[in-house]
Amino acid sequence: MNVLSYVLVYRKFFLVVFTLLVLLPLPIILRTKEAECAYTLFVIATFWLTEALPLSVTALLPGLMFPLFGIMPSKNVASAYFKDFHLLLIGVICLATSIEKWNLHKRIALRMVMTVGVNPAWLTLGFMSSTAFLSMWLSNTSTAAMVMPIVEAVAQQIISAEAEVEATQMTYFSGSTNHGLEIDESVNEHETNERKEKTIPVPGYSNDAGKNSSNMELEKNSGTGAKYRTKKDHMMCKLMCLCIAYSSTIGGLTTITGTSTNLIFAEHFNMRYPECRCINFGSWFMLSFPAAIIILFLSWIWLQWLFLGFNFKEMFKCGKTKTVKQKACAEVIKQEYQKLGPIRYQEIVTLVLFIVMALLWFSRDPGFVPGWSALFSKYPGFAADSTVALLIGLLFFLIPAKRLTKTTPTGEIVAFDYSPLITWKEFQSFMPWDIAILVGGGFALADGCEESGLSKWIGNKLSPLGSLPVWLIILISSLLVTSLTEVASNPATITLLLPILSSLAEAIQVNPLYILIPSTLCTSFAFLLPVANPPNAIVFSYGHLKVIDMVKAGLGVNIVGVAVVMLGMSTWIVTLFDLSTYPSWAPPISNATMP
């Protein structure tokens, strides 16, 4: 038993050593560059899947192993760790830092929810829409972390309102009257009493001890039925939590900067096929936005039906008087919005820069009309989306946000400097350096596969798949990616599979976009487990969900997502990129299939 405990404690260390030794015969026996690169690939894949080492640490292994195996010189490997992608990421993080610093994200979310009304079904759709919109520009994780406290407050307010209605009915039947019942006061009073007895865990706002005690209290309340007065209240909390988790992921599909997997795909594709120049912010938005809208709408219907039922008659009934629940819900949203106060100068400037960045991205090279990049026709292809991101990002460090003052010895208050919209320290706290290193490691791994000839070898071995229908190949690759991303990180999954899928497309003489686009989109479909992605973990930590709830709901959303992607590949996406023919910018047949 002691030996087993020892092994469990040091399991990650043993896994690293075991993996390196077990796979070592591969390069020793075969003694080819392809085998040596395959050894590196298998080691990195194992470490990424098991997280025996931190993902970003594993991503540094190509810089160690490729020079030792003679696959690539060290300086060439190092150059792969900082690409155009990283400049784009820096500019986007500058925007995200300013948005979150000045609470613009919260104002947008609350305003959108106030617009759709307080009917439970429409309220859920409002939360999903606002979350998806924010996730287009912010990271999925920060979006979910920002919206969930608002959703939790609304959910608890609805439960409190129902308790107040029951108390009022009891008072009425006992013979007393209370015609002057004020919803706001009664709800707030009940909410105060509830807070004295129970604590709802909010990630990032309570310590570990508080979370543990809250979870214990939650289990206790679930067993006695005191936490949720009715099963419907519990189902509503589950519904709202899952809506936030899934919509924050779905929203990230729509823009290249919305999620790291999109950025990784764009950089990999533009490096592997530099003559294409067909993947940019505008073209990606046109292909992914319709898919995201359909997936979001169908997911809303699926989750609504699964947890609360879907009553069209109640949803579209006009002139219906608001219930006490709906009034309480509207009141808490209104109060949260009023706490923000009037819109400030810093929020206005951030919003303007945000709009300017989006417009410049869309108009750089829209495809159907000449974009502003045509003004620099002498240097075609030089200006990219990262150019726009850097331009706007630098402005956040330049534009004044407020004056800095000091008091002179005479008591006079004078301004001596100004503070910009964001500072370097604030930017550093938001910058995901681990993702930057992870993506760089993926680029280095892809370069090594090309230099060693492993990519061509894999493509040649996969060429028999060309006898299958293209739609079946797309379906198989999409299901493979969707399954793998449930147990591995999304960036690691897409980084690992992009070189392989590119080689497959070239070997069977199919437009690479035909396979890479659906695979990239499906990499984000990590809906089944709490550990599948950070938004799932955030909403799961609130204690309303069980794993089986997420599995049942996520399976339906996964099916919807893959089906919509397959539909898009046979309709609007095919016409958008002319995927029916093997393009001239891809490697010719002789090079693509050479062993």
Write the layout of secondary structure elements.
Elements (H helix, E strand, L loop, with lengths): L1 H8 L1 H12 L2 H6 L2 H18 L4 H4 L2 H9 L4 H6 L4 H18 L2 H13 L3 H16 L4 H34 L9 H15 L10 H17 L6 H21 L8 H13 L8 H27 L4 H4 L8 H16 L5 H20 L20 H12 L3 E8 L5 E8 L3 H7 L2 H20 L1 H9 L7 H15 L5 H18 L4 H12 L10 H7 L6 H23 L2 H6 L11 H4 L3
Antiparallel strand pairs: 1-2
Detailed description of the structure:
This protein is mostly helical. It has a domain at 82-166 and 228-344 and 435-577. Helices cover 69% and strands 3% of the residues. The chain has helices spanning 2-9, 11-22, 25-30, 33-50, 55-58, 61-69, 74-79, 84-101, 104-116, 120-135, 140-173, 183-197, 208-224, 231-251, 260-272, 281-307, 312-315, 324-339, 345-364, 385-396, 424-430, 433-452, 454-462, 470-484, 490-507, 512-523, 534-540, 547-569, 572-577, 589-592; strands at residues 400-407, 413-420. Strands 1-2 form a two-stranded antiparallel sheet. Helix 4 (33-50) packs antiparallel against helix 6, helix 10 (120-135) runs antiparallel to helix 11 and helix 15 runs parallel beside helix 25.
Keywords for this structure?
two-stranded antiparallel sheet; 2 strands; 595 residues
**Uncertain regions spanning at least 5 consecutive residues:** 176-226
Helix content: 55-70%
Strand count, sense and barrel status of the largest sheet are: 2 strands, antiparallel
Number of helices: 30
How much of the sequence lies in strands comes to: under 5%
Which sequence of strands runs across the widest sheet? 1-2
Query: Which word captures the global form?
Result: globular
- Radius of gyration, taken over Cα atoms and rounded to an integer in Å: 27 Å
Structural class: mainly alpha
Mean pLDDT: 79
